Amino acid sequence: MLARDFKTDVLPISNKLLRFALQILQNEEEAKDVLQDVFLKLWQKRDELGKVENLEAFAIRMIRNRCLDLIRSRRTVSLELVKKNRQQEEDCSDADYLENTELAGLVKRIIAELPDLQRTVIHLRDIEELEYEEIAEVTELNVNAIRVNLSRARKKVRDEILKIQNYGITENKHIAAKVL
Amino acid sequence: MESQRINILLQKYFEAETTLAEENELITYFTSGEVDENLKMYVPMFSGIKELLADENPGLGDDLMNHILESEHREKLRYRWMWQMVTGVAASGNAGCEFLRQSKPMERHVYRS
Predict the structure, then answer these.
(1) Quick one: closest CA in B to A122, which residue?
(2) Considering only alpha carbons, which residue of chain B is nearest residue A155?
(3) A51 secondary structure, DSSP code
(4) Is residue B44 within 8 angstroms of chain A, CB to CB?
(5) Percentage helix, strand, coil for chain A under 3-state DSSP, each rounded to 5
(6) A121-172: per-residue pLDDT in tens?
(7) Whether pTM exceeds 0.80
């Protein structure tokens, strides 16, 4: 693959890959580091990329593996980080999101709290718009398992949003009752 | 009529049986501003997904290419430095050998005398 082809075929998927890394790691700095590492590797192997059937799925799988490696090392190295993240999550309660008009942030946060496979599958399908076969290539799952995980993930996102909406309505009624 | 179709699509969506085109149809409907009262509860979910879809950084590709070229440049400099070290060591080795070679006959001469 020529440098020119790399720029036209590989670089345009960088935003997709960054979003995916961010979804897994929940840390912008680490996600950017992973993205740079993966792109450097892709660049160094650009002569072999012509043989890859689905470059996008191939790159997404590289990102996923790299992120999972990082999470594993993070778990073994620092429990402090986990504690810190947990504290941040607790500080940022659902009630905050009732006042937050940025729905993307709400959906992103709910997706982030899903189990790994459900999170990966819903992100790749609903945000990156990948076909089931492409998701199968990234996750090494069969299409049926992907559908099961996707269905569960979508229902959980729906239920969480409804729960938050209902909580908002209840809170508003409570405030209204106090005022009256 | 439309809300009936959307209801069917929603059921398929939550069972992960929709196509990408049908999923886009749902996003378009729920972000159109003309949503049936009974379906309004799904607006935040699909609006959020739509916002995430548009989350792009246009300069990211250029930043990555700069990072790649800088890394390559650094790597080349490192190799050049290593090469200079190796050739430097080899050159001083050669000079040392040459010095010994030239000094040996003199030593022999001294011993003989």
Answers:
(1) B16
(2) B14
(3) G
(4) yes
(5) 85, 0, 15
(6) 999 999 999 999 999 999 999 999 999 999 999 999 999 998 887 776 555 5
(7) no
The answer to whether B16 contacts A15, with C-beta atoms less than 8 Å apart, is no
In angstroms, the CA A115 to CA B80 distance is 48
Chain A: nearest CA to B53, how far in angstroms? 5
Tokens representing residue B22 in the block: 């049908």
Task: With a threshold of 0.95, tell me whether the complex ipTM lies above it.
Answer: no
| CA distance linking residue B22 with residue B28, whole number of Å | 10
CA distance B68 to chain A (A): 6
End-to-end CA distance of chain A: 71
Angle at which helix A28-44 crosses helix A14-25, to 10 degrees, equals: 140
In this structure, the dihedral spanned by the alpha carbons of residues A35, A25, A121 and A163, taken in order and rounded to 10 degrees, is -140
- CA dist B10 and B18 (Å) reads 9
User: Mutating which of B51, B52, B57 best tests the A interface, going by the most A Cβ atoms within 10 A?
Assistant: B52
Tokens of A180: 């009256």
Judge: A19–B57 Cβ closer than 8 Å, yes or no: no
**Cβ(B47)–Cβ(A103) below 8 Å:** yes
Yes or no: say if A28 and A22 are a contact pair by the CB < 8 Å rule: yes
Judged by CB atoms closer than 8 Å, whether chains meet at B48 and A108 is answered as yes
Q: Quick one: A112 exposed, middle or buried, by C-beta within 10 A (0-12, 13-18, 19+)? A: middle
CB contact under 8 A, B16 and A151: yes
- Amino acid identity for residue B34 in this structure: E
